[in-house]
Amino acid sequence: MTIQLTPSQRAILTHAHQHTEGKIIWFPENIKGGARQKVIDGLSKRTLITEGGKDWLMTAEGYEALGVPRKVPVSAQVLAEIIEVAERSKPRTRDNSKQAQVIAMLKRPEGATIPQICETTGWQQHTVRGTFAGAFKKKLRMEITSTKEADGQRIYRAA
Asked: Structurally, how many domains does the chain consist of?
């Protein structure tokens, strides 16, 4: 199906395609004030453009109406999205996670007790022990040692 465009609509979409990665920022000299809003409304109602935050961007239908392939923008936002997808494919590690806090506590020279870890993380004792066995020993292959002090408290350390 061929979409009929006015000369002004064609000029606006062509400029957006060729110069601004599909962002609508230019209008012909004869389109000012309220006329600009009417052109935007017309393009939007026909789903040739869509609102993207504060900007208007060409849609797939807009590129199709021009008969041109959609350019792949290499803007900072798109680059950030690509990096985010790549980061998600890696095993997740967060420096400020509870797991990271517990590992830091276990690596201290004085180690950590289960009550100290519970206080820091808000976890229950069985959760701490389960984390030691599952996440740390099995998944991360950490070696965790424990010693019983003279006062009866058990101290855990990452070897």
From this structure: 2
